[in-house]
Amino acid sequence: MTTATQTEVISVRAEGGTVAITGDTDATRHSGEVTLTDDSHLSLHVAPKSALSISCESASVTVRNVTGPIVIRTESGDVVCEGAGSLDIATESGDVSARSTVGAVVVRTENGDVAVDGAGGLLDVATESGDVRARGIGHAVVVRTNNSDVALSEAGASVDIATESGDVEVVDVGGVLVVRTESGNVVADTVGGGIDIGTESGDIVGRLIGANAVVRTEAGDITLDGKTCSIVDAETESGDAYLDLGVEARACSARSEAGNVTVRLARGAGADVILVSESGEVVSTATVVGREVRDDGQNRLEGRIGDGGCAIDVHTESGDITLLEASSDS
Length: 330
Description:
It is a single chain. The protein is mostly beta strands. Among the domains are: 1-45, no CATH class; 48-134. It is 0% helix and 58% strand. The chain starts with a strand and ends in a 5-residue tail after the last strand.
């Protein structure tokens, strides 16, 4: 085994299926392994379609324009990859950056940030405390993290994110978005396949959501622009909920214990409504043909708006319920 000094630069080049070590060092006179010090630099030049497997303890790794599958294992070094065919990366404390990957990207890190810009296949990331940023993902996305923020944009398929205490922001997803977090806020913007979001103490904001929207939070507020939703299902214990429905909405269900719930109908849209609050107020600015009941402190409004249509069912314990009709310029 040969150890390189701090000033040595060792080059390794693939030649005809073999690996040749060159350079003005003692390594050129040995055929065994080469061990590099902290300040050494190893440069490896291979054919573009090569498959690479790299393992090191504390070194950073950079790979560019190798279109074969790449496997990298390092304990404390950063990893940078550009133009890879596919990536399988594991590091304990290093950051990971991947750009323009043709196929799948799989990353495992305990304490490093992950940044992925462009991947044609699956993106699968798991990290303990590093933040995750990704965009331009052509296939499904799976992210698992304990104490990290997640920011994702431009995903062509389904997205599944779970984090304990980090915020999540997702923009422009073609498939279904599923998010689970304990104490983080969630923002979902332009999701074609619908959303299924649950958080214990964070706020939830949804805009331009297609298909169905299911949102759950214990202590956070819910704000949903559901103008393109077919079905809305919202639940919060102590937070307020504001649900904006479009003309294509078929059903809206909302539950709250101590939070207020506001539902806004598209102008001219019909609905069949059941609004019940055990101790809060029930108010509608739209004309409801039916009956309003106040019995033992419970307020209940049940009836039809216009020709009926969207089934609106809202229940609260102590929160107020407000049903609004959008103005003509909304």
